[in-house]
Design goal:
With 165 residues, the chain is of the alpha/beta class. It is built from 6 helices and 5 strands. The structure holds 4'-phosphopantetheine.
Length: 165
């Protein structure tokens, strides 16, 4: 079975990768789909996010990385996927995820959202907190893959504290 794992991935964290690994064990194929979010200011371009994801997901042969221009359910339909996989870190994620799952179900009743629990060690981790700490000079080593760490250093080295959440 094919599952779509959507997100902003700005940038991909070890928490996301924990979920990719779990999903790759449960589903025959997983597409990690990068969404542009017009409501969010991003640090990395879509191309940069795709490049980082492709690099760090290459170890899973059944995982593909793609970009997703519009509605998630439309993208899922276009790829022939009937499952959307989402990660839940804590209870605080639930309310918004429930809202999205029910809206997606309303748009596409035969596409099911499946929630998987992120590893407890990543329960506090988010792309936003990684960017905030890194932009203020803190260490995010061990929280993101090395490829992301390098790009964060490059990008924030140039922009320093200019980056705002
Ligand atoms: O990593 P994020 O920012 O929490 O991911 C949110 C994402 C990309 C999954 C969500 O914004 C999304 O599904 N965007 C695609 C557009 C869409 O279908 N929006 C309606 C969702 S109910």
């Amino acid at each position: 079975m094919l599952a779509i794992y959507p997100g902003s991935f700005d940038p991909v964290t070890n928490g996301h990768l924990d979920l990719v690994e779990r999903a790759s064990r449960v589903f025959g194929r997983v597409i990690v789909a990068v969404a542009p979010n017009p409501l969010k200011a991003t640090l990395f371009t879509i191309e940069e996010r795709l490049a980082m994801l492709r690099e760090v997901c290459s170890e899973w042969p059944n995982v593909e990385v793609d970009s997703m221009p519009g509605l998630l359910v439309e993208y899922a339909r276009s790829r022939g996927a009937h499952v959307i996989v989402k990660g839940l870190r804590a209870v605080s994620d639930f309310e918004f995820e429930l809202q999205m799952a029910l809206m997606n179900r309303r748009q596409a009743p035969t596409i099911e959202t499946v929630f998987m629990m992120t590893g407890a060690e990543y329960s506090y981790l988010s792309s936003s907190i990684v960017k905030e700490v890194a932009s203020l000079g803190g260490s995010v080593e061990g929280l993101v893959p090395q490829a992301v760490l390098d790009r964060l250093t490059q990008k924030l080295g140039a922009r320093g504290c200019e980056y705002k959440r």
